[in-house]
Write a structure and sequence with these properties.
Length: 237
């Protein structure tokens, strides 16, 4: 099976979104996609879910910890033959999200650092493999700069002392943003055991070895630390 292709929805009325982090929460998903339909579970094979890059929004919201490197977000990266992970699936109206089969600028603004691709997925409601689920995948610094320009990179990352988005090595010590990790863990739990166990056992730190279950067992304070009051709803699971 090959890697995903650029998200291709042509002019379809609805597109299918695959959620791997915040979008595991239906509440969070509706903040971004208020008209979503048919929220359910699926599996994305041949992709690994990794806390492998810092997200600018964590710095903007004051929840990135640069001292401890707890500042990473999630993406999916292609690994041929990998079991993959449980995701959420839902349909949203294609209201200027796709233009000519490619993500629109408005959609890219919401997911600025990712490669937005179309991948096969399995709908766990019926066990059938489907095509064309839109997924936030690992990208490159070069791709980001080509898309947005060096000034955008400086504004979103450079001002915080971050020299790379996607160049963090497996031994870099990069760790999940604690507030975001708690949110995603609670969101996965709310979707039932299959989703929760997948998030704990099929999501990895930047080292690609340590699972979230292992990491949380060593850092239980993450799950008992509430988000800042102004972010309690957005990062409340």
């Amino acid at each position: 099976m090959s890697e995903g292709t650029s998200a291709n929805a042509e002019q379809e009325e609805f597109i299918t979104i695959l959620g791997l982090g915040s979008l595991l929460s239906e509440r969070s998903s509706r903040m971004t996609f208020p008209d979503l339909q048919n929220f359910r579970l699926g599996r994305v094979p041949n992709y690994r879910r990794v806390f492998g890059h810092p997200a600018s929004i964590f710095f903007q919201r004051g929840i990135a910890n640069q001292e401890t490197l707890e500042m990473s977000s999630l993406s999916a990266e292609y690994v041929d033959g990998h079991a993959g992970f449980v995701c959420t699936i839902f349909e949203v109206p294609n209201n200027n999200m796709m233009e000519g089969g490619m993500p629109s600028k408005a959609y890219l603004e919401r997911e600025e650092e990712f490669d937005i691709i179309s991948v096969p997925y399995i709908d766990l409601e019926n066990g059938k493999e489907r095509q064309g689920g839109v997924l936030c995948a690992r990208y490159t610094d070069e791709g980001y700069t080509q898309r947005w320009g060096k000034e955008r990179f400086e504004k979103q990352y450079g001002v915080y002392g971050i020299a790379t988005i996607w160049g963090w090595k497996q031994d870099s010590g990069l760790l999940p943003c604690a507030t975001y990790l708690r949110h995603c863990t609670l969101a996965a739990k709310s979707m039932g055991p299959a989703c929760s166990d997948s998030f704990l056992d099929e999501t990895f730190l930047a080292d690609r070895t340590t699972t979230i279950r292992t990491y949380l067992a060593s850092n239980p304070q993450i799950m008992t630390t509430e988000p800042p009051p102004e972010l309690a709803v957005r990062y409340g699971g």
